[in-house]
Amino acid sequence: MSLKDKITDLIPGYNKIVLPYHFLKAGAAGLKYGFPGKRLTVIGVTGTNGKTSTSFLIWKMLNENGYKTGLMTTVAWGGVGGSSKTLNMQIEHMTTADSFTLNKRIKAIADAGAEFLVLEVTSHAMAQFRTLGIPIEIAVMTNVTHEHLDYHKTFENYRMAKVKLFKKAKFGIANADDPSSTYFMQAVQDGLTYGVKRGALKAKDIKMSASGVTYSVKGISIKRSEKAVLNRDDSEYRASDFSIETQIPGEFTVYNSLAATAVGLRLGLTETEIHNGILSLESVEGRMNRVNLGQKFEAIVDYAHTPDAFQKVFDSVAPNKNGRIISLFGGAGRRDETTRDERGEIAAKYSDICIITEDDSRDEKPETIAKMFLVGCERAGKTLDKDVFIEIDRAKAIEKAVKLAKAGDIVLVLGKGHEKTILRKDGPHPFEDLKETEKAIKKLLK
After folding, report:
1. Which of 80, 94, 187, 260 can bridge 57 by disulfide, Cβ–Cβ 3.0-4.6 Å?
2. Are strands 87-89 and 116-120 parallel, antiparallel or unpaired?
3. d(CA 207, CA 10)
4. Spatial distance between the Cα atoms of 150 and 53, rounded to a whole number of angstroms
5. The domain that contains 408 carries what CATH number?
């Protein structure tokens, strides 16, 4: 079997013409920058949702305990030492940068004295060999739901691309409550599962509030990594039952922090160090960010843009609502259009008022995208211009949502989160959901 055939077999269905190009490009990038990933202990995080928040929790946990750790995520990169001031905000609309940018940034992180790197890894990155030459000490899987099928064509191809990360890793950590976890755990020789319903590492006595979550972790025995951050004589470590607290609300935070806990245990951190490290993270930009300027209603900005992410956001806020839920959302052009009506239906099911707007429409008509979301909203019982509205201009849509809000309501601005631009037919335009939401609230308060 030729090298090309071996490579193609790793990713079923991938375009055989461009595959060798990506492989050679990744190899050239590694050679140019001296394969900098080999200078670091790399923790790779993959999944459909939760990658960024999990990465931030691991990054903050290690830095908080004195281990210089770099970060590369959808939101930002850099951050050696754990200070948000040392993070470079990510402008590109991609999670894992292209091979040359990726290696250049990893080299900068290594040159800054980092011992560890927390790397958020997408299915695109694995399919295009962008992590070639980067050894993975620990691979983490948050969950796998339908996304990027416009690129991978089938869910199986999408999942297999992510499983590749585990094939590269020495140790795997997977969400046992996710049906795909067995595929990931079968790809590594050693690993640990976590979850609420299943898994070796379980969260018990979960308490959720608007300011965060707390729960207890059942103690386990775990073999330490050869690159454990602490010098211990025994290779097997017994963790007692201990508590976890976070400053980030939402049921998904339980899963994300459990994944970070598993990483900490594998690397040899104590229960207290894990607890304090996770608690030290105040927020992640664009992930359940509360905008509080003194208004009498809640305003939350989140990156949710898949059915699973939508469901998790509404599951987190619906039980705590005192008034109505007003949700604002749209869909990216040239991206998995098969879930647009599903997302509309989920939002409409939990929201009292829905506002459909533009997202990164690219060269697709935003009006066409909006109508596909409307189908789902109407299926859930909403009526156009009564409790579901279409306002294509996203800034005007956010202003409308804020104007409609009354005391005790919750306004959810979903889809773009941390992103600094919106992609339209004529290219990118400066746009930030957080700033536009603040602007609309300030205008209302005046």
Report:
1. 260
2. unpaired
3. 42
4. 25
5. 3.90.190.20
